[in-house]
Amino acid sequence: MATTAVTPEREHYLNQQYGIRSWLLTTDHKRIALLYLISITFFFFIGGFFALLIRLELLTPMGDLVQADTYNKLFTMHGQIMIFFFLIPSIPAVLGNFLVPLMIGAKDLAFPRVNLLSWYLYIIAGGLYLHCLLTGGVDTGWTFYTPFSTAFSNTKVIEAGLAIFIVGFSSILTGLNFVVTIHRMRAPGLTWSRLPLFIWSHYATSIIMLLGTPVLAITLVLVVLERAFHLGIFDPKLGGDPLLFQHLFWFYSHPAVYIMILPSMGVVSEIVTCFSRKRVFGYAFVAMASIMIAVIGFLVWAHHMFVAGISLYSALVFSFLSYLVAVPSAIKVFNWTATMYKGSVRFTTPMLYALGFIGLFTMGGLTGLFLAALGIDVHVTDTYFVVAHFHYIMVGGAVMGYLGGMHYWWPKISGRMYPEFLGKIAAVTVFVGFNLTFFPQFILGYLGMPRRYWQYPPEFQVLNVFSTAGATVLAVGYVLPMVYFLWSMRYGAVATDNPWAASGLEWKTTSPPPTFNFDETPEVTWEAYDYANIPAPEEVPVGR
Amino acid sequence: MADSTVGVESHDPALRHHFATREQQREASSLGMWLFLGTEIMFFGGMFCAYLIYRYWYYNEFAAGSRSISIKWGTINTIVLICSSLTVALSVRAAQMGKRKLVLLLLSLTMLFGVAFLGIKGIEWYEKFQEHHVPGQSFDASDIVREYPQIHINQQHEQIYFSLYFAMTGLHALHMIIGLGIFLYLTFHTWKGTYTPEYYTPLEIGGLYWHFVDIVWIYLYPLLYLIDRKPLG
Amino acid sequence: MSEHIIPAKLYVGIWIALMILTVLTAGVSFIDLGPFNTVVALVIATCKALLVVLFFMHVKYTSEKMTKVVILSAVFWLFILLALSLSDYGTRMWR
Lengths: 544, 233, 95
Fold this sequence. Notes:
The complex is a heterotrimer. Chain A contains 16 helices and no strands. By secondary structure, chain A is an all-alpha fold. Chain A has one domain: Cytochrome C Oxidase, Chain A. Chain A is globular, with a radius of gyration of 23 Å. Chain A starts with 19 loop residues before the first helix and ends in a 53-residue tail after the last helix. Chain B is mostly helical. Chain B has helices spanning 22-57, 59-68, 71-96, 100-130, 142-147, 155-192, 201-225. Residues 1-9 of chain B have low confidence and may be disordered. Chain C has two domains: 1-62; 64-95. Chain C has helices at residues 8-28, 36-56, 65-89. The termini of chain C are far apart. Chains B and C meet through helix 1, helix 3 and helix 7 of B and helix 1, helix 2 and helix 3 of C.
């Protein structure tokens, strides 16, 4: 079927205006989403490059690739870049920005100019961090623990701290925009109980962004002041308490991990329901579970401090609360599984990523429970067991959810289909590479290999070699989608409005959408995931 | 395909295109500002947490430090801010009634109070500078140590009190300066005639911000100035 | 925030109350109430804050439920930070 039609190209948000000014001064949430996409992908590859250097160093037991001080900088900046400049913005700033107004039938977010400001804050912060990186870097570990960061480190702690402070405000403003939009701009008839679960999970994420990030901000301010003026707030020699820093730091940084996972869970809900052609089992439970994760997630932070010197009694309290927080996550996993049961399952690329998410997130989550047990934590804390645990959730979970979402909504965003066969190859490559990289690390940690060490005893080498091999496979899996997404923008099949025959308001407008999203404001009279009344995929063309 | 907006409404200059009605826009702005103030509660809250812990640990030093700052200036500043909150509230009320000149007068008074607050804060900080109570290289609290022969005052712990004093009042003052900037903007637009009894939302939400900064001071005042003012001996 | 216009006299009345409470809190601090000095100071501060929130910020007259939800949530969250941190500091036996 001819794709070079005689009719002139329909106007949509990508071609409505051309030129760099129309992008850099845009207030269209869809364009801002793409600006974010480019920015976070850039930082993803820098952070990934540092990961490759780390894995290369760890190929051999001796420290021979880089010096010890350099190694400290590598793991610090890998962590800070991946967390603050990739994972925390990723789904909310790209998919959230693009889809939240579409999914609720609105023309834009509540505060479009604030949205653009969010992106500029990200860019300013990113630029500052890059400057820090290029002029010496920072070596404190991503966690900035005092008094090393405030009194002893000779690296650019203040600059890194300020950069993260600024990017925190980018995050706060995004969360603020989402909450107001979801409350005040839903289309007529779109009650809370009809909202897609993607919206519920972004709402929960936004609550965390709003209530947690400011505490990180003030903590970084205090670190910067202490380092600049030798105040003594966190320095034991001057009467300060390093644990106070850790309490304030983790009050944000634990909920931050839920900022990183909740949006992914929302993506998985959307993908699983579409490719099982069945409404999500236990919709209300899944929606409430998102809110419970956000709330309980604020009550567990000191499980990062079990061996740091907190009192045994408060450790017991935090351990107990940490077990509680697993419950809503488990509820979601059960409900996704029940959704697929007796559903009409299609193993498309997004579905492969979603299935990978469910399995790998479960493994990561279960190992979190091991860590929540005080007796086990004493042995495996600060070992590779912890490293494996959080990478299973952040990479096996969050990143796979992000990739699944990018594939699922790519037709809507770009108006083109990505090549399905290559998509599946990449998904499998990522899955295999990921497990090869991180499963050996559970064993290494259990055997006692500490994290953040540049050398290790020779008996750990075999497992480290597996891990590094896995990392190279994983890298290939990440580069592939970049290549074929770009390819598809020119040569991919032109997508229809709803190539997946999915439910959701975003599929009721064109691919790509017009600048103001809908020709007429939709009025919603149906429940979410109304698959009984949606034509089956066989009847719907995928591409033109 | 026409890219028409939904329902071609009469062109309302104050209504932004992604909102359906003025009411929706106002409610969105209001919720947005309240959420932002919520984040500010957590932002200042982190420092209140640090303050709480160290006051619990080093009560004597905190009490001594509290006595060494001027209750006169602190109380005057509290009164100044409360007056400025009154003028802000009255200015929003005047805007609701369309009394442009009154709004301008009240906004100007508010900014005057704000500048007065900052001036007094400057005087206080300068006093502390002269007494060598500013944390850092030249910190010296031996005068406070001498004042309390019966209790042992640890100078390093005393420095923590002053670190928090400067950090908290400094952050508050920074918010006041930002508030002054916001009110300059609001004054300019009031003068231009942008606001009407039907549309004065920026004044409302600017006022909310100012009141919040006042509330932070309402807590800072007793926590920093009134820890222990009992007569000695 | 509502459309109805609050009389100027009410604002002035609240202002007078705030003044009185300020003078009160300053005065009470000179009287020895032991540990209750702190309690009284914080109670007075909270009363002042409530007056500002309810009247100057119009929360008493607003029809928007979310305003109250946001305020209460933020205050509660701060309370979580303070209470759970104190649960550590308050139970460290060596202090």
